[in-house]
Amino acid sequence: MAEPICYMNERGSLSIDSEIRDLLDITDGDLVRLSKVEVVKVEDEEIDVEDLPDETCEVISNINDRGGVRIKQEERQALGIDDRRAKLKITGIEILVASQSGLEFASGALN
């Protein structure tokens, strides 16, 4: 499977496509880990991706029923895209499921 490309708004919200959520059986409230998130494009004519820090980040967030995930401000700052709309490539998605014994990995993963 190809690495997903997602559009993030200025506040750090992005949506994981329903096809990927269905494939991995991701449901509302699941805790997901987005691995190696990197900037592909910034929706700002004054910023070139080549001028951004050569950084990737990992995001752990709950997902809502529409596939929404939130990237924290600290992570957006590390990528050089705080308060900007951007196109992001996500190398992997893992589902972390909250259980009574703590966090455990579910069987679904996209790498």
What does this structure look like?
This protein has helices at residues 18-24, 73-79; strands spanning 5-8, 13-15, 31-42, 57-62, 68-70, 86-99, 102-110. It is built from 2 helices and 7 strands, in the order ββαβββαββ. The protein is elongated and about 40 Å long. The strands form 2 sheets. Strands 1, 3, 4, 6 and 7 form a 5-stranded antiparallel beta sheet that branches. A hairpin with a 2-residue loop joins strand 6 and strand 7. It has 111 residues and is mostly beta strands.
Summed up, the helix count is 2
Shape: elongated
**Whole-angstrom Rg:** 14 Å
- Indicate the proportion of strand residues: over 45%
Structural class: mainly beta
Secondary structure tally: strands: 7
Helix content class: 10-25%
Q: What is the terminal separation in angstroms?
A: 8 Å
Along the chain, the helix and strand elements come as EEHEEEHEE
| Low-pLDDT sequence parts | 98-107
Instruction: Report on the biggest sheet.
Output: 5 strands, antiparallel
Q: What is the arithmetic mean of pLDDT?
A: 86
Give me the secondary-structure topology.
Elements lengths: L4 E4 L4 E3 L2 H7 L6 E12 L14 E6 L5 E3 L2 H7 L6 E14 L2 E9 L1
Antiparallel strand pairs: 1-6, 2-5, 3-4, 3-6, 6-7
Condensed summary:
This protein is mainly β. It is built from 2 helices and 7 strands.
